[in-house]
């Protein structure tokens, strides 16, 4: 062993890469960019479960779900550009809502099978709704049999508009100072300390240019446009609804980022009487309900997917 300063080979991989290696994420070329993809295939299965993370999240946040459901179907989760192990780019415009949606569309086209289920967390739900609206326009909505809204609401998380005007270097400097207040919003009081530490270690690598772009898009109406796209699918004002996927809404009762009240507002405004949906609120869980209450979350999701 060499003395003195450690070389790159001596240092352990960053937490996000260590997690990716454990879960089997691989970089795939999607729309000319390197995107981290978790793809568990089950021989002979014509069913695929897509899992979409939210702003600042990653595919690895579905690690407990990938372990459980890969025995019954294909499972696909991926890191949006700038997230997780996906490529980090200089142009903030490539982190826009439109670009993220185009990436989702490309991933869906690449990995879809005859029967598809889509689950999405928070900001990811906005992209899922756009995908469903696009599939409806293509007369292909029937490809998606069931959808899952996770920690999703009618109103976006609170975004400090002043922060969006700050230079990136200043936001990087302020990031550690805002960690405690951020944790209080995201995690429930009963969240394990090691879970919080792990998530903080990984999300600290999220580029501030990306987070700013997402925030700016939300303030410019991206969240509202996503809800409107969903209304065009589940509760259209014109034309008849010939087919709708079944819906499960999963939410932590202690979620402060997207409150249960916002979730119930989404349900009331989004789904028509014809829609088949179920709402499940999980006790003692915050915004990352799939991590904080994974066993209860997986049991509810299994019942929904298998029946």
Can you tell me about this structure?
- With 307 residues, the protein is an alpha/beta fold.
- It has twelve helices and eight strands.
- Helix 10 links the parallel strand 7 and strand 8.
- Helix 2 crosses helix 12, helix 3 crosses helix 4 and helix 4 packs across helix 9.
- The chain is globular and about 50 Å long.
- It starts with 14 loop residues before the first helix and ends with a helix.
- The mean pLDDT is 93.
What's the topology here?
Blueprint: H1 15-23, E1 26-30, E2 33-40, E3 47-52, H2 63-69, E4 74-78, H3 97-111, E5 115-121, H4 123-137, E6 144-150, H5 168-174, H6 179-186, H7 193-203, H8 208-219, H9 222-234, E7 246-252, H10 260-270, E8 277-282, H11 289-292, H12 294-306
Helix pairs in contact: 2-12, 3-4, 4-9
Defining traits:
307 residues, alpha/beta, Rossmann fold, eight-stranded mixed sheet, 12 helices, globular
> Helix coverage percent of residues?
40-55%
- Total E-strand runs: 8
The run of helices and strands is HEEEHEHEHEHHHHHEHEHH
Radius of gyration: 19 Å
Indicate the low-confidence ranges by residue numbers: none
What is the global morphology? globular
Q: Strand arrangement, largest sheet?
A: 1-2-4-3-5-6-7-8
The CATH homologous superfamily name equals: Alpha/Beta hydrolase fold, catalytic domain
Query: Can you tell me the CATH class?
Result: Alpha Beta
In CATH terms, what is the architecture? 3-Layer(aba) Sandwich
* Gap between N and C termini: 57 Å
CATH fold description: Rossmann fold
Integer average pLDDT: 93
Structure classification: alpha/beta
Tally of structural domains: 1
Count of alpha/pi helices: 12
Main sheet specs: 8 strands, mixed
**β-strand amount:** 15-25%
């Amino acid at each position: 062993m060499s003395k003195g300063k450690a070389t790159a080979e001596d240092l352990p991989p960053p937490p996000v890469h260590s997690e990716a290696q454990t879960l089997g994420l691989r970089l795939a070329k999607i729309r000319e960019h390197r995107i981290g993809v978790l793809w568990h295939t089950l021989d002979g299965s014509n069913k695929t479960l897509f899992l979409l993370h939210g702003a600042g999240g990653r595919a690895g946040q579905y690690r407990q779900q990938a372990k459980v459901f890969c025995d019954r179907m294909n499972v696909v989760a991926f890191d949006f550009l700038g997230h997780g192990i996906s490529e980090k780019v200089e142009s903030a415009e490539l982190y826009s809502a439109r670009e993220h949606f185009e990436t989702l569309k490309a991933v869906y086209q690449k990995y879809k099978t005859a029967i598809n289920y889509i689950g999405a967390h928070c900001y990811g739900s906005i992209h899922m709704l756009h995908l469903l609206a696009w599939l409806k326009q293509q007369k292909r909505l029937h490809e998606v049999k069931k959808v899952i809204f996770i920690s999703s609401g009618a109103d976006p998380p609170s975004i400090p508009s002043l922060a969006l005007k700050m230079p990136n270097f200043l936001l990087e400097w302020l990031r550690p100072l805002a960690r405690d207040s951020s944790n209080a919003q995201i995690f429930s009081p009963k969240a394990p300390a090691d879970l919080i530490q792990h998530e903080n270690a990984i999300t600290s690598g999220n580029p501030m240019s990306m987070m700013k772009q997402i925030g700016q898009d939300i303030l410019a109406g991206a969240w509202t446009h996503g809800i409107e796209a969903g209304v065009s699918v589940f509760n259209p004002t014109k034309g008849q609804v010939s087919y709708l996927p079944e819906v499960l809404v999963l939410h932590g009762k202690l979620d402060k980022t997207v409150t249960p009240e916002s979730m119930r507002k989404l349900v009331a405004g989004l789904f028509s009487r014809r829609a088949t949906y179920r709402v499940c609120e999980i006790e003692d869980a915050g915004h990352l309900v799939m991590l904080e209450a994974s066993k209860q979350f997986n049991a509810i999701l299994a019942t929904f997917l298998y029946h």
